[in-house]
Amino acid sequence: MDKRRGAVRVTPRATAAPAPASKAAPAKRGAEHHKVDLKGHSESWVRNHSEVSRSSLKRLLATPLATFMTVAVLAIALTLPGFLFSALSNLQQLTQGWEGETRLSLYLQPTLSSEEADRFSRTLLLRDDIAAIDYISAEQGLLEFKRYSGFGEVVEALKENPLPAVVMLIPKAQAAKDLGLLRASFEAMPEVQEAILDLEWLQRLDAMLAVAKRTVFVLGLLLGVAVLLVVGNTIKMAIESRRDEIIVSKLVGATDAWVRRPFLYTGFWYGLSGALLAWLVIQIAWMMLKTPAAELANLYHSQIELHGLGVIGSLLLLAVSLLLGWLGAWLSVRRHLREIEPR
């Protein structure tokens, strides 16, 4: 301190030069601290859908009687086309086994003697378009008729044999391609009274099966529309019962997709439950028909093995039911959700 002229002078201390200020990192705000990557977003999406699906299922289980009645209606609507579909599949498999061998039956003139009929059947073996023949004389046909028809006493009372001799023909593969011309050529012979193609009734059956397929398709469409209406009406009642909850959710910023999601899962559970119940009913029905069908086949000295829906039919039933349940819920939510808006 230096005292001069009555003034006080303060000598400053030597201080170290201040260090250059380092560049400070800019402060991060709260939104920048939580960046969500693709993996986190997908995990959150899966978690949300899992929670919504479980909550939708719990809501349905909370009212078991109403849920069962709705599922029963859906199952009945799905059972009829599913059962008819499996029945047509069984008939197609049965007819495919019969189409492997084509037979042509030649009913000979009753005026031919046994020797003439036998000679005529032998001449048919010389044809290039015939693979094999089976000659059944009039006497042999009468014996077989008495044995299997149960009218033995009536046949014995007849004075003459009314049955003609029959020649069963199996054409070769080349000739089987045009059975109409082959039949006409045999029917034009003087020894033949009538030529009958054994597969004519099978062709009629195929035509009836084609009509039945179209009928099942139309019936399935109509019942599918019925399923849509049932699911849509059920979802509509669920929306009305949760109207206040939907309004509050929209007030706090919930999107239509978020509000729509639980109702779509409700339609999914309805479709899944209806498909499982319909599949169970169809399988039980075929199990009940197996024994009578086997007894009927034994009467005709044949074997019939009935099959249910199978893997493909079951998957098709499940897919259609899930699609109808989801679509019915989506249409109902899309229509009625617009009417619920906070004011």
TrEMBL record:
One of its GO terms (biological process) is cell division. GO terms for cellular component: cell division site; plasma membrane. Pfam families: FtsX (PF02687), FtsX_ECD (PF18075). The keyword Manganese does not apply. Its main location: membrane. Residues 1-35 are annotated as: Disordered. The chain crosses the membrane at residues 60-84, 216-235, 268-289, 309-333. Keywords: Cell cycle, Cell division, Cell inner membrane, Cell membrane, Membrane, Transmembrane, Transmembrane helix. Residues 104-194 form the FtsX extracellular domain. Residues 218-335 form the ABC3 transporter permease C-terminal domain. Residues 8-28 have a biased composition (Low complexity). Gene3D superfamilies: 3.30.70.3040. It is found in: Cell inner membrane. It is a multi-pass membrane protein. Forms a membrane-associated complex with FtsE. Belongs to the ABC-4 integral membrane protein family. FtsX subfamily. This is Cell division protein FtsX. The gene is ftsX.
